[in-house]
Amino acid sequence: MNLFEDSQLVDSYLVGDESALAELINRHKNKVYGFIFSKVLDRDIAEDIFQDTFVKVILTLKEGKYSEEGKFLPWVMRIAHNLTIDYFRSKTRMPLIGETFVDEDFSIFDFLADPEDSSEVKIIKDQIEKDLRMIIEYLPEDQRQVLELRIFKDLSFKEIAEETEVSINTALGRMRYALINLRKLIEEKNLTLTIV
User: Fold this and answer.
1) Is the distance from CB of 49 to CB of 80 less than 8 angstroms?
2) 168 touches 156 (CB < 8 A)
3) CATH number of 1-93: 1.10.530.10, 3.90.45.10, 3.40.50.300, 1.10.1740.10?
């Protein structure tokens, strides 16, 4: 049992108790680092993102911009998630724009898959799905239809071809163009699949 709630430690840190921040980091480091590592699968990169996460936490606290009392961990997890997305975008390695969509097992959320997701991660995933649905609305109808059937209804390309009355190759082609256009839309409109 923790002697102090996260919110109490945040308050202590804000009035100059550096040890309170150390306690917060120690309390949540395994969960935050584990989340990051499960996405990037590289210890050095995970460590860098972990450090960046807490640098951003410290700066936000010092600037007096933190106002989510009682929700410290979800807030930190969101920062970690955003920085992980930034890493994938900077390396153009985000699965959203990969070539793996031909694989029947592909899911746009594979990079977030975690068999024991915590409640805050589920909240983040829900928000990403809402953001994704909003972005998809910009696509041409035929591309949007294939993308929605594949991602949200989890249909195979054979099933998509039957439902849309086109060949499997046409369905695959539409999916490919949908992903290309989705990437362009994200860049052009400066959209990010994260909680803001």
Assistant:
1) yes
2) no
3) 1.10.1740.10
Residues 132-179: tens digit of each pLDDT: 777 788 889 998 898 888 877 878 888 888 999 998 888 888 888 888
Query: What pTM did the predictor assign?
Result: 0.48
Report how far residue 131's alpha carbon sits from residue 125's, in angstroms, rounded to the nearest whole number. 10
Is 24:6 a contact under the CB 8 Å cutoff?
yes
Give phi and psi for 167, each to the nearest 5.
-75, 160
Please name the CATH architecture into which domain 94-196 falls: Orthogonal Bundle (1.10)
CA-based angle 93:132:54, to the nearest 5? 60
For tokens 């990169």, the residue is 45
> Are 4 and 27 in contact, with CB atoms under 8 Å apart?
no
Between 42 and 69, the higher pLDDT residue: 42
- pLDDT tens-digit map of 71-128: 889 999 999 998 988 888 776 444 444 334 444 344 444 444 454 555 655 666 666 6
Contact, 80 vs 50, CB < 8 A?
Answer: yes
Q: Which two tokens stand for residue 107?
A: 């899911």
- What are 83's two structure tokens? 């920085």
Give CA 9 to chain center in angstroms. 27
Cβ partners under 8 Å of residue 166, min gap 6: 174
